[in-house]
Structures are given as structure tokens and as C-alpha cells.
Write a structure and sequence with these properties.
mainly alpha; 21% helix; single chain; elongated
């Protein structure tokens, strides 16, 4: 056993995207992440993907929030 004194802890729970409801609707990669560009646009017009379900390198709270902003701006611009 090892004990480590820390001031805080960030816990990650799971790395599996819950995108089965979109299977056959938008393009997904082999791991189930939605294929969408930095503009959050998917393979289907007027469907946007934001947050950790989007295929990307970094999955953090700040990138998910930025995706939400980009998706909202794109949707309003329709």
C-alpha cells in the first residue's frame, strides 16, 4: 500500500462516449466518437457535436465548454 498526501483530486469516470442513439445518423469513428470538425459540424447538416463525444485529442472541461460555444454560434448562424 502507498499513501500520498494531496490537496485535491480530479477523478475521471469512463472514456466511452454514449453515442449509440446517433449510430447510423451521423458519422462515428470506430470508438464511437462523433466525427466533427473544430466548427462542431457533423456529417449531417444542422447537427452539431460538442464536448467529450466529439472526436478530438484533448477532452477537458474547458475544451467541452468551448465546443458548446462554437456549436451555439454555428446553430444561431443558420
Amino acid at each position: 500500500d502507498t499513501e500520498l498526501a494531496v490537496d485535491g483530486l480530479f477523478l475521471a469516470v469512463g472514456m466511452k462516449p454514449e453515442t449509440t442513439l446517433l449510430s447510423g445518423i451521423v458519422d462515428l469513428n470506430n470508438a464511437g466518437y462523433i466525427l466533427a470538425g473544430e466548427d462542431t459540424r457533423t456529417s449531417v447538416n444542422n447537427i452539431f457535436a460538442a464536448g467529450d463525444v466529439r472526436n478530438k485529442t484533448v477532452r477537458q472541461l474547458t475544451t467541452a465548454a468551448a465546443d458548446g460555444t462554437a456549436a451555439a454560434i454555428a446553430a444561431v448562424a443558420l
